[in-house]
Amino acid sequence: MRIDILTLFPEMFDAVFSLSIIKKAVTRNELELHLHNIRDYSQDKHKRVDDYPFGGGAGMVMMIQPIADCIQKLKAERSYDAVLFMAPDGHTFNQQKANQLSLYENIIILCGHYKGVDERVRELFITEEISIGDYVLSGGEIAAMTIVDAIARLLPGVLNDATSALSDSFQDGLLSPPVYTRPADYQGYKVPDVLLSGNERLINEWKFEQQLERTRNRRPDLLTEI
Ligand code: ADE
Fold first, then answer.
1. Is residue 52 part of a domain?
2. 10 CB under 6 A from ligand 1?
3. pLDDT of 100-125, one tens digit each?
4. Is 89 near ligand 1, meaning CB less than 6 Å away?
5. Which of the residues in the chain have pLDDT under 70?
6. Residue 116 sits in which domain range?
7. 25 lines ligand 1 (CB under 6 A)
8. Which of the listed residues 152, 186, 211 is the one where a domain comes to its end?
9. Nearest CA to ligand 1 atom 5
10. pLDDT at position 26, please?
11. Which of 95, 125, 152 is the last residue of a domain?
């Protein structure tokens, strides 16, 4: 899968993309990440990428020209399955959306900044607008990283244990059960006996009960959706 990210702050992605699961996905050639600095496409003599809003109002608006030129250049090189715009007024991201995006071949992610982008960018180029939650970030970069991370761990061969992405919270509509590792007794705080029993059926039953209980306590809304 190839992901092209349009941003005013490509450096923000350096650490996140060079470590852990995303790095693994890239090293294994399951994921190709390309960062594009929107400012490089500005035709303004001062390389400006934003301007005052027509009709007044607070904040600057990202101009269409640099974004349009960058998207058009990419689209001339290959076809894209989706052009995403990260925005607090988009559809809320969830595991189902991550699963769907992970099946795409090529996607573009546009990160907004300032007060927004010229509405014509959304009309002309964007196929999906995605929010990572009901709060406003300073820009779409952290939201884009969130989405890339959620996708990377779903790509084939990225996680060691073939079942581990499938057993993530939300994949079956339930939260994950608690997990434990050594020592079995930490200063009197013990791991549940059943996990040490070696009885796979009882362990699976216990895990499922824990999933239900956690979901009931923490996210009852998920149970009504099943
Ligand atoms: N940009 C600013 N806030 C955002 C959010 N909540 N989700 C996605 N992109 C954003």
1. yes
2. no
3. 999 999 999 999 988 899 999 999 99
4. no
5. 161-163, 225-226
6. 2-152
7. no
8. 152
9. 88
10. 97
11. 152
Q: What is the pTM of this model?
A: 0.93
- Looking up tokens 């040490």 gives 196
pLDDT score for 167: 74
**Tokens in use for 142?**
């952290």
Residues 24 and 118 occupy one common structural domain: yes
Number of compact structural domains in the chain: 2
Q: Are strands 82-92 and 106-111 parallel, antiparallel or unpaired?
A: parallel
What CATH number has the domain bearing residue 186? Answer: 1.10.1270.20
Q: What are the pLDDT digits (tens) for 127-159?
A: 999 999 999 999 999 999 999 999 999 999 888
- Atom 7 in ligand 1: residue holding the nearest Cα: 131
What is the whole-number distance in angstroms between the Cα of residue 66 and the centre of ligand 1?
A: 21
Contacts with 33 (C-beta within 8 Å, 6 or more apart), sequence order: 3, 5, 13, 17, 22, 26, 148
